[in-house]
């Protein structure tokens, strides 16, 4: 019998959004009729200039990428007004989360996060045998964070803003207040995976890496997977003072993103038109989801992201709704595993959203 590390006993494998292929196979629905609104991907796809860059770079597939990733760091440094040595690139910001966890956690440490937040924080912490501490609320509340911090002295404090899977956000003022009250021996992670959407909605919720770079124990995380439409390329980044970045670099495998991913991200970071177009579509569609909830008598969380979370009353069961939608070819995220009678829906194109509303109305009828 293989003796696996005992930390594995506590870990539930991350459940990713169901792929289109699965719905086609299991329910015999043709791929064109499947609507995937489960993983917060960009509904308009990938920028045309990125596609061109992928084709141009196809004949470099046999070459290892530039391991310094200088050109991408340069683009990010320009975008955020920081230095190249403030930046580490990961295979998704997920990989940067893994570097952070491995760099500071062991079986004697704790991590602190909100009651309902990104599932990978817990999984990476458990891989290191660390203890998980959660606040009472899914919102990031100053008093709750500071009380839990004082009691447990966690090595990592997670602030996911905007928060996934709830969609709410924490204002810049509030985030900085929390950071200032946390001791400098804990790493504070500000996960801005959806920051492009929050910034477009309300400046008070817009946090740029530069707003928090003065704190030596704070790292900002960003990703190309959401607004930039590159979920399939796996590119994310962390931005912090160079001493913190240098330590994280010790955890990084060489060539941790591919030649094509690197080319795609470099091109994507330059295409602001595509981001603007994505945000505009999002803004014109999300109101329909709010109206739909009101008309049908259930609550939603005001969203600062590219998804919306519907919170159901007791007589509506999120698991039944998610399963029934799936059989109709509509993939959304059931939040029952997070302890919520709720579903999370990525805002799609106008046509995808029409399909969602039509099927959802049938399910609850
Ligand atoms: C999607 C997401 C990430 C990371 O995504 P990658 O594809 O690994 O870059 C990180 N944090 C949150 C909150 C997310 O929703």
UniProtKB/TrEMBL annotation:
<protein>
    <recommendedName>
        <fullName>Histidinol-phosphate aminotransferase</fullName>
        <ecNumber>2.6.1.9</ecNumber>
    </recommendedName>
</protein>
<comment type="subunit">
    <text>Homodimer.</text>
</comment>
<dbReference type="InterPro" id="IPR015424">
    <property type="entry name" value="PyrdxlP-dep_Trfase"/>
</dbReference>
<dbReference type="Pfam" id="PF00155">
    <property type="entry name" value="Aminotran_1_2"/>
</dbReference>
<dbReference type="InterPro" id="IPR015422">
    <property type="entry name" value="PyrdxlP-dep_Trfase_small"/>
</dbReference>
<dbReference type="InterPro" id="IPR004839">
    <property type="entry name" value="Aminotransferase_I/II_large"/>
</dbReference>
<keyword id="KW-0028">Amino-acid biosynthesis</keyword>
<dbReference type="InterPro" id="IPR015421">
    <property type="entry name" value="PyrdxlP-dep_Trfase_major"/>
</dbReference>
<feature type="modified residue" description="N6-(pyridoxal phosphate)lysine">
    <location>
        <position position="226"/>
    </location>
</feature>
<dbReference type="InterPro" id="IPR001917">
    <property type="entry name" value="Aminotrans_II_pyridoxalP_BS"/>
</dbReference>
<keyword id="KW-0032">Aminotransferase</keyword>
<keyword id="KW-0368">Histidine biosynthesis</keyword>
<keyword id="KW-0808">Transferase</keyword>
<dbReference type="InterPro" id="IPR050106">
    <property type="entry name" value="HistidinolP_aminotransfase"/>
</dbReference>
<comment type="similarity">
    <text>Belongs to the class-II pyridoxal-phosphate-dependent aminotransferase family. Histidinol-phosphate aminotransferase subfamily.</text>
</comment>
<comment type="pathway">
    <text>Amino-acid biosynthesis; L-histidine biosynthesis; L-histidine from 5-phospho-alpha-D-ribose 1-diphosphate: step 7/9.</text>
</comment>
<dbReference type="GO" id="GO:0004400">
    <property type="term" value="F:histidinol-phosphate transaminase activity"/>
</dbReference>
<dbReference type="GO" id="GO:0000105">
    <property type="term" value="P:L-histidine biosynthetic process"/>
</dbReference>
<keyword id="KW-0663">Pyridoxal phosphate</keyword>
<feature type="domain" description="Aminotransferase class I/classII large">
    <location>
        <begin position="33"/>
        <end position="358"/>
    </location>
</feature>
<dbReference type="InterPro" id="IPR005861">
    <property type="entry name" value="HisP_aminotrans"/>
</dbReference>
<dbReference type="GO" id="GO:0030170">
    <property type="term" value="F:pyridoxal phosphate binding"/>
</dbReference>
